[in-house]
Structures are given as C-alpha cells and as structure tokens.
Amino acid sequence: MRVRRKTNIYYIKGRQKPKGHHTPNTHYRIETVQGKVSSNPSPFVLPAASHFYCFSLNLSVPKNMATLTHPTSQTHLFTKLSLKPKKFTSPSRIRMALQENAPSLAVVGVTGAVGQEFLSVLSDRDFPYRSIKMLASKRSAGKQLTFQDRNYTIEELSEDRFDGVDIALFSAGGSISKHFGPVAVEKGSVVVDNSSAFRMEEGIPLVIPEVNPEAMEGIKVGTGKGALIANPNCSTIICLMAATPLHKHAKVIRMVVSTYQAASGAGAAAMEELELQTREVLEGKPPTCNIFKQQYAFNLFSHNAPILSNGLDIFVCGDQIRKGAALNAIQIAEMLL
C-alpha cells in the first residue's frame, strides 16, 4: 500500500499481496466530511477477500496522522476510483511518518545495537518526523544507512549537528551523553538519553509514561527551550510497571529484586564478543575478554554494582526506583508531540 494526500482526501493504492486477497492496482479514496472523518463509518471488503482494514485519520492536529495497519470489523467509507494502473512495489502498510509539520529528529549512536532498535521502534510506531539525522562516531561517518525505504549518510557526531533538532535520542554511552547532551539542550533540543549518565542527577526527570508523566510537565518540543530526560535500565522499567498499580492499592513496604542483565545491554560489540567467547569456550580455547574483564559466555557475574555483604545485588535498580523510571525512549518522545 502507499498513500498520497490531497486536501482532505487520501488516495490509497492496493496491490495483490498476498495472492487472492485484493485486486491488484486498484485505487480507493477516503473522503472526510467538514475536516473530520465521516461520522458514519461503514464496513468495506476488498474485492474477492474477507478482510476488513482500519484506516485511522486525525485532522484535529496539523500532522494529519494516517495509518492503514490491521484487519478490523469495520472501517471508514472507501470509494473506488477508476485510475490507470501503474506498476510499483508496495510495502505491507501505509507509512505517514515523514511529515512537514512534525519534529526533526537525531539518533546519536545510530550504528549501535540500541541505536538500531531506536530506528526499528520509530518505524513500527510510525513516529512522525520531518527530518532525521543519523549520528555516530568518526569511524562510521560516511557510511550509508536505509530507514523506511530512504537512504541516509551517517554523520560524525559533533556539537554543530544539533542545530535545528527538536528531539535527540541518545544511546552512545555515558561519556558521550555527558558531553553532547547538554550541548544539544543548549541548542534547543529535547534530549532523551538511554545511558546511565543522568539517571540519578537532581532536576533531570526519569519518567515512565504510565507511572509519572507529570515529571515531564513543562517540557515541550518546538519552543526553542531544550530539556534532558533520562531513560532507565530495562529491569527498572519492568519492575515499576508491575509494582506501581500494586502500590496504589496497597502500599509496597519492601521489594526483593533479582535482575539478570543480557550482554546486549552493553551494545553490539559485547554481543559480538559473547558470540566469539561462546565459540572459543566450545573449542577449548581461552576466551577473549575485551569488553568485560571476565568471561561472560556460560557465566554469570556482578557487573556494575558491588556485591553486598548479604549477597544481594539490587543497588542500581533500587536507587532508580526511588527516583522514578521511563518505559522507553520512544514512548517518552511520543509524549512530547
């Protein structure tokens, strides 16, 4: 499917995929009434198919978000148009993320494991943006990257890269965040940082949208006033999502937490070394330990917090719980729209 916009009419072109489900190269038109979606939606079945599709449109905001995503029991009125068919390769869903009135984005550490996950989540959620900068180290600068069927050149991270950026997603390590995060804020960007650099700093919100969204009150995109928001460790997010509703009904006095972190949390290099160590151990060779100082293939050890005298290692998670936490960087960014 692909879509193009003309005033308040959206044209959708469907192609046969999978076979037998729709008529190939057929156009449909979705009309709106007085700036709103028709208030009398009727079910519509594509020819020779039993699948309904849901088209959602929001004209109350300038972004005019629109998605055609999943089978549903009913949808808005479609009108068939007789247009000359053209050959094209269609994606599996409509993408309306690239919009003139949406915020500009920057992904810092885009070549890393979490940076790639940022792009995946942005795409899955059709996050609206008018432009996006792919930022990484000097080693990756100049390489090509494809995102939502568009090619981008990775740029070397520098202080001037944040000019005109509304939202900056950071996942390049604590030292990078410490240096470039405040720079981006000074240039008017709202920074969502995935590292541990700012999680415990006074005055910097650590937010779960479903738990403490009020911590982001006053932070707006496009005002020219930058801000910094910290994104917590994944174990803290999971813990708080479960504990918060319980705490609201019956106060939680004490929690005993055991958390086991994956090597992927240390990035792509750690994942590669884990694979290398696994092969070396199975072959009877001494494991390569460059990322961590000890073997972590087929192993479990304390990494970023001291082992307490009672054997419990809950220091990091516990301190973050006391301040608050964030569900994930993209959901935080969505709250800024």
How many structural units, i.e. domains?
3
CATH homologous superfamily of the largest domain, by name? Answer: NAD(P)-binding Rossmann-like Domain
Low-confidence stretches: 1-92
Q: Which descriptor suits the 3D outline?
A: globular
Q: Largest sheet, if any?
A: 6 strands, parallel
In percent terms, what proportion of residues is strand?
15-25%
- The number of helical elements comes to 6
Summarize the helix and strand pattern as letters: EEEEEEEEEHEEEEEHEEHHHH
Please give the CATH class of the largest domain. Alpha Beta
Number of E-type strands: 16
As a percent range, the share of helical residues equals: 10-25%
CATH architecture of the largest domain: 3-Layer(aba) Sandwich
Q: What is the CA-CA span between the terminal residues? A: 26 Å
CATH topology of the largest domain: Rossmann fold
Mean pLDDT score:
73
How are strands sequenced across the largest beta sheet?
13-10-9-14-15-16
Could you characterize what this model shows?
There is one protein chain. This protein has six helices and 16 strands. The protein has 337 residues and is an alpha/beta fold. The protein folds into three domains: 2-81, no CATH class; 104-234 and 325-335, NAD(P)-binding Rossmann-like Domain (Rossmann fold, 3-Layer(aba) Sandwich), CATH 3.40.50.720; 236-323, Dihydrodipicolinate Reductase, domain 2. Strand 1 and strand 2 (9-14) form a beta hairpin. It starts with a strand and ends with a helix. 28% of the residues are buried.
Give a short summary of the structure:
InterPro entries: NAD(P)-bd_dom_sf, Semialdehyde_DH_NAD-bd, Semialdhyde_DH_dimer_dom. The chain is of the alpha/beta class and 337 residues long. The chain is 21% helix and 20% strand.
